[in-house]
Specification:
The chain is an alpha/beta fold and 362 residues long. The chain folds into two domains: 183 residues, Rossmann fold, CATH 3.40.50; 136 residues, 3-Layer(aba) Sandwich (Rossmann fold). 36% of the residues lie in helices and 12% in strands. The strands form two sheets. Strands 2-1-3-4-5-6 form a six-stranded parallel β-sheet. A five-stranded parallel β-sheet has the order 8-7-9-10-11, sandwiched between helices. Helix 10 links the parallel strand 9 and strand 10. It is globular.
Length: 362
């Protein structure tokens, strides 16, 4: 179902144009026109942002028939060889249309004045030079791996190394940095089971180890060593189907959720939604609505012994851990669902909710 383009601007529910991200299409499909302009195909659906869609959408944008445009933050520029070579390989006979879509999605913002929100959920903490035009055009740039010092996202992009005092003092640099906002991955779909208070293990972990993150390869040694101390550590030795995975995750008191390629991880929210307290290394990024230590989660230091100490200390207080699990689930359902995340986006950009009513100021 597509947006009613005859509705006058400023009235009723928001009208959204979304390219590549998919969050608004998931939560508010009746309010969202969704198109794909990625270098790899999007499932089997025919939503490529081809010439006719581009012209039709641009006309609607210029007529004020959308309230907001939501786009992704592509890790590669449209003109990069990997972009068009991947498109040529994967789209086959549709490659010309795909190449048009990739370019059109990046150029369209020069021809309309509708507010733009960029959602960058890439693993990398960096923002490349090819993104600068988009940053300057958008209202807000929502970034998953937003470094604690936000200037560092520009490392080796517009500056030859770490941006220094002179670069940070430039008005253009300050304008870009001021548009950066934190954004969480959240959990993309509903768990297959309900939470349980019946716990059969102390710590659960299932995920990639090598070659992934040194946080993981270092931490797994400590985690497995805790078995020798009598703790019940559930680390499957083979892949699990989704339901079994969720059952074992829900049956643990703690879910080890270490940094992978990025710090933010689906497991943080997936475990808390299933009533298991997430066990995470200390954040390396700026967050929106972060979990609070001792209330929703357990944090640990990545130095040797940090994980073991955190696990022992947490498991000494099982009643408190059970209360934390309840609080973490309630917090996730309030602040980290797909709906909560897109409400955060539209409230930041437009000061309104999805239904068009005024948003509360955070």
């Amino acid at each position: 179902m597509t947006v009613d383009h005859d509705q006058p601007k400023g009235g009723g529910k928001l009208r959204i144009l979304e390219i590549n991200v998919g969050l608004f299409k998931q939560v508010a499909p009746e309010q969202t026109d969704f198109f794909w302009a990625g270098r790899k195909p999007y499932g089997k659906t025919n939503v490529l942002f081809g010439p006719s869609a581009f012209l039709r959408t641009l006309k609607a944008l210029r007529a004020g028939q959308y309230d907001i445009v939501v786009v992704d933050g592509p890790p590669l520029p449209a003109w990069h060889p990997r972009t068009w070579l991947t498109a040529l390989r994967d789209y086959h006979i549709r490659a010309p249309k795909a190449l048009f879509a990739i370019a059109a999605a990046r150029l369209m913002h020069r021809f309309h004045d509708v507010p733009v929100a960029v959602i960058d959920i890439n693993d990398s903490f960096g923002i490349g030079t090819h993104q600068f035009g988009l940053i300057e055009r958008c209202h807000s740039y929502f970034k998953r791996e937003l470094t604690a010092d936000r200037w560092q996202v520009f490392f080796k992009s517009s500056h030859w190394d770490l941006p220094g005092r002179r670069w940070r003092s430039q008005k253009s640099s300050q304008r870009r940095m001021a548009k950066l906002r934190p954004f969480h991955l959240g959990y993309p779909s509903q768990p297959t089971i309900e939470p349980t208070t019946e716990k059969t293990s102390d710590v659960f972990f299932a995920g990639d180890l090598w070659p992934n993150s040194t946080v993981r390869t270092d931490g797994i040694k400590e985690l497995l060593a805790l078995r020798d101390e009598g703790y019940v550590i559930d680390v499957p030795d083979k892949p699990l189907d989704r339901k079994t995975f969720h059952q074992r995750l829900a049956a643990a008191r703690l879910a080890w959720s270490p940094a992978g390629y990025g710090w933010d991880c689906y497991r943080h929210y997936e475990s808390s939604e299933l009533g298991t307290v997430p066990l995470m290394n200390y954040p390396t990024i700026m967050q929106h609505r972060p979990f609070r230590a001792g209330e929703h989660c357990v944090y640990y230091s990545v130095e040797t012994g940090g994980l073991s100490r955190a696990v022992r200390a947490a498991l000494k207080e099982p009643d408190h851990l059970a209360e934390m699990a309840k609080a973490a689930r309630a917090y996730t359902l309030e602040h980290h669902t797909a709906r909560a995340r897109i409400e955060y986006v539209v409230a930041t950009v437009l000061g309104r909710k999805l239904d068009g009513s005024p948003a509360e100021t955070e």
